[in-house]
Design brief:
Order of helices and strands: EEHEHEHEHEEEEEEEE
Number of strands: 13
CATH architecture of the largest domain: 3-Layer(aba) Sandwich
Largest sheet: 9 strands, mixed
CATH class of the largest domain: Alpha Beta
CATH superfamily of the largest domain: Thiamin pyrophosphokinase, catalytic domain
Shape: elongated
């Protein structure tokens, strides 16, 4: 089955406001406690997946009863995080787009691993983004439009060791054929100067992080 867009709700920081983004034709996955979040807010996930070590038996039974499909993994004998399991199952649906939410939280290791999934999606030609109350994160490897989504700042951080040919149009602080290396903060806390800005990249992968406090 091919779908246009897959939404993955993981067990990190979740906001009910994200539920307004769910469209009738979306394929919705709840990863571990993200599945409970969906069920508690009246959304039936097409798939609930994970080891479910963050929910109790009563909550797991509720997830089971209100999900179209449930996949439970052994919490010890598994190599992937619950979010990556959900991501892999999403890719199998051949979507044009994957949206991840609840994938940033107090665990920095999990947050970074989830951000790295943007690269996996891009390498397969899938548009992918991470949304939450404070951040909207995408990845750029050529030309990208940055829309004003109500966030205060736009920061650019290299995901590959070096990103070259960075040019910005429609930003408060423009760049022209710049190079960024991992560890540099030159492009942190920029702002849009127009409703839509454009980011050009010649070589490498650049994280575009729209954020607010």
């Amino acid at each position: 089955m091919t779908v246009n867009r897959v939404l993955i709700f993981a067990g990190g920081r979740l906001n009910p406001g994200m539920l307004r983004e769910v469209r009738s034709d979306d394929w919705v996955i709840g990863a571990d406690r993200g599945a409970l979040f969906l069920v508690e807010h009246g959304i039936t996930p097409h798939l609930a997946v994970g080891d479910f070590d963050s929910v109790n038996e009563e909550e797991l039974d509720r997830i089971r009863r209100h999900s179209k499909e449930l996949v439970i993994c052994d919490p010890i004998d598994k190599d992937l995080t619950d979010t990556e399991l959900a991501f892999d199952l999403a890719v199998q649906r051949n979507p044009a787009e994957i949206v991840l939410t609840g994938v940033i939280g107090t665990r920095l290791d999990h947050s970074l691993a989830n951000i790295h999934m943007l690269l996996r999606a891009a390498e397969q030609g899938i548009t992918c983004s991470i949304w939450d109350e404070h951040n909207y994160i995408t990845l750029c490897g050529s030309v990208c439009q940055v829309e004003d989504r109500g966030y205060t700042y736009v920061s650019l951080l290299p995901l590959t060791p070096v990103v070259t040919g960075i040019t910005l149009k429609g930003f408060m602080y423009p760049l022209d054929d710049a190079t960024l290396r991992i560890g540099q903060s030159l492009a942190v806390s920029n702002q849009l100067a127009a409703p839509v800005g454009t980011v050009y990249v010649n070589e490498g992968w650049l994280l575009i992080i729209q954020s607010r406090d």
